[in-house]
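Continuing the series of single-chain predictions for the mutant panel. This is the parent chain; the variants come on the following pages.
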Amino acid sequence: MLVQPPAAALAAWVQGYWFIQDLAGEHEGRAIRTSPIPLAVLSVNMGRPNAAQDGSLVPQASLLGLQSRARTWRSWSDTYFVMAMLTVPGLIRLFPHAGEGSADRLLDLGALIGDAQAGSLPADIDSAAGPRAIAARLDQWLLRRLAALPAVPEARRVVAAHDVLRQGGRVECAAHAAQTDRRQLHRWFLRHLGVGPKDLADLERLHNSLRGMQTGLGDPVAGYSDQAHQIRSWRRRLGVTPGAYARQGRSALAAQFGADGREPCFYL
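Parent structure:
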């Protein structure tokens, strides 16, 4: 389990490439929980696909849109996959207008962009190659996609609004930064992200709170009106209170990914 950085030209769109392989079989058949985070995930399976909560197998290439709740997965000793962690600008730019269809869903990439384009991604990846070589192939595929897609006219304005929300700003301030009104901003967010501005602000706040709990960096209650507000958000989106999570401790995957506060807290 390791992280490879994307090419410099993709840094605004891709947070990193995460490689997951359970060589020792420590997680085989066990429930693995992931947190809703303000990122989307483009995944490619190079081994046996892991299973979603309903038991269905994850497609060979898939897109996990922004999630509003924690998810549960199961993997096997021969599971091996890579995740491209897409930033909010990356989701808008690389998969324009996919928000409403991808939020709270795991999509087969072929159903989203067509089998020919989607099939070229796993076809380009040699599972026997090392992570650095696989990351380079992902870079190439994503850069080709960037070059082929027209720019989204309102993308800069949506990203400006997201920057305000990420810093704890109000929706009114986000709309002002986007030079639009709240209704239009809400429509843009739904079109490209699948969630409204308030929900995205809540995901940002929750992610900061979880990072504070997992790493000890920052105040886990920051951004909430009080501790009761924090507890309600955790219970609603993670199915656990901060106190219960602190007592049970973070998972081994959470300890590896995001332990230093630089990576997103994807695993619970």
